[in-house]
Amino acid sequence: MKSSELPKNGNVLVQLFMTQKTTLAVSVSEVSKNSAFWNYPLPWKYGRVYVPVEKHYPAASYAKCKEILCHMDLNKDDLAGKRVVELGTVPGGWTMVLLEQGAEVNSVDWTDLKDPWFKVHSSLRHHTMDAKIFNPVSIGILDRSEALDYVFCDLALPPVKSVDLMEMWIQNRWAERVIWTFKMGFGHEVSHALTIRGIQKCLAKYEPEFVCTIRHLYKHENEVVVLGRWTDEMRARAESKKSIVKDM
Q1: Does 39 fall in a domain?
Q2: Are residues 104 and 10 in the same domain?
Q3: Assigned domain for 37 exists
Q4: Rounded to the nearest 10 degrees, how much is the dihedral formed by the CA atoms of 236, 132, 187, 48?
Q5: Both 19 and 78 in a single domain?
Q6: Are 5 and 79 part of one and the same domain?
Q7: What are the backbone dihedrals phi and psi of residue 240, each rounded to the nearest 5 degrees, phi first?
Q8: Pairing relation of β-strands 104-109 and 83-87?
Q9: Which residues of 112-131 are buried (b: 16+ CB within 10 A; e: fewer)?
Q10: CA torsion 104→106→111→113, rounded to 10°?
Q11: pTM reported for the whole predicted model
Q12: Are residues 7 and 84 in the same domain?
């Protein structure tokens, strides 16, 4: 590779692989991200986000949430004050991570969050109900002319049902960003490949306005996660619609 062929911004990932004792393969790729997530190749060693073990969280699932935030390049500055709905909350690993990042969280689950830390947190509103029928407009936390900043979903559902629920959120544009996990361990699913194709078919309906990726992350074991976001153009349309409503 000539020096003129290297990426100009200096953000590169160099990978070396010995194909034979005397042959070294070298890959030089630009590290980049779009408005929603890091593109491949990923900027971390081995493509894996390192999440340290922390004992104060009520569940080990906190590591999944932190890994997702890294893939979307989100930190406290991005999440502070943002309105979030979390579907499938208990025991609260994801909830605690999001609250620590400064988000305003509406959590939804059949049962209450037991950790005393949640009882005194002013940025948390917990809804004890079926997350599958949760409607942010009818609940009163969202106006029809606006959108939440994020929806996070980690519900234990068969993938087919989870796809339908995710599509309801995307179709109604209830959230600007969608983070949605799919549990692949349900025995009635024909194959993982068919499940992935079903997710892709659903998401394709909303492209290119909805930018998204499907990923299998290190901490997610037998799961995949959709990371998606409405584009700036779609947000501009929404803002225009709001102004029309106000003028009327």
Answers
A1: no
A2: no
A3: no
A4: 40
A5: no
A6: no
A7: -65, -40
A8: parallel
A9: ebebebbeebeebebbeeeb
A10: 0
A11: 0.84
A12: no
- Is 83 in the same domain as 199? yes
Q: Are 108 and 85 in contact (CB under 8 A)?
A: yes
State whether 64 and 105 are in the same domain: yes
- Taking only the tens of pLDDT, the chain with its 248 residues reads 555 555 555 577 777 778 888 888 877 777 777 778 888 788 888 889 999 999 999 999 999 999 999 999 998 889 999 999 999 999 999 999 999 999 999 999 999 999 999 988 999 999 999 999 999 999 999 998 899 999 999 999 999 999 999 999 999 999 999 999 999 876 555 678 888 999 999 999 999 999 999 999 999 888 999 999 998 765 555 455 445 444 44
Instruction: Answer yes or no: is 60 within a domain.
Output: yes
Range of the domain at 234: 45-244
Contacting residues for 227 by C-beta, under 8 A, at least 6 apart: 36, 37, 68, 71, 72, 178, 179, 212, 213, 215
